[in-house]
Amino acid sequence: MIENEIGRSVVDIAVQIHRESGPGLLETVYEVILAHQLQQRGFQVERQVAIPIEYRGIRFDEGFRADLIVENQVIIELKCVEKLNNAHKKQLLTYLRLTGMHLGFLLNFSESLMKNGIIRTVNRLVE
Fold it and tell me: Which domains can be identified in the chain, with CATH numbers?
């Protein structure tokens, strides 16, 4: 399955979850529900995945943690904040660069309309 197909499912499920649950839950609650719903659709999902960094030839596994990685191809970062800012977007792009993955989604479940809380980020994605 290619990244864009996975991405469409991620967005569909996120919108569905937001419709049913609304804004205001904790980020971890949305994370567990989204992971479960993706798995119900047959996707392989990993939660809280360590993303190592390398500095001067030394590898550090404590660098970052991606909220969800779907099918080892798409990174999902979840937020429950009043407004997303550039730091959130840069964080996701950094994760994509460090892993060599090409597609990620920043999902802010605090928006009143979920479509306003979805940011698609690419890192050299061939479409």
Answer: 3-122 (3.40.1350)
